[in-house]
Amino acid sequence: MKIKLFYSAIIVAALCVNALNTLAAELEVEVTGVRSAEGQVKLMLFERAEGFRKEDKSREVLVLPATVGTVRGVFSALPPGRYAIVSYHDEDGDGKLKLRFGMFPREGYGLSANPSVSAPPAFKDAAFDVLEAGIKLAIELKYPSE
Length: 146
Fold this sequence. Notes:
By secondary structure, the chain is an alpha+beta fold. The chain is 18% helix and 40% strand. It has one domain (25-140). Strands 2, 3, 5, 8 and 9 form a five-stranded antiparallel beta sheet that branches. It is globular. The chain starts with a helix and ends in a 6-residue tail after the last strand.
């Protein structure tokens, strides 16, 4: 009797893990317009408006080596939902986005949905939906004129 219960528990656990895996999506991000191979490209994934643009409030951060042209990153095992991404080219490799006057980027930056913004962007400006099947999107970096 104990052996049957043990094997039943294993089967139920395996089915639960399988069900969770089918609900986990993959988000593939292509960052285009990287102007140099200096430093790194950061992708910060957010799942809510609170704390948007603040790295320590992100769900996950990918740090990828910079290459001229295009950099690709993948966020795995995401539950379906609404997300937004902030990306920037940390050319000097100091781990921070350089800002002018505390709000204007001095390094290449981009947002999911590639919105045109004239003020600090909000979560809703960059938001997109991830479904069970996953999603692929492109973010175009914009560099400020010096």
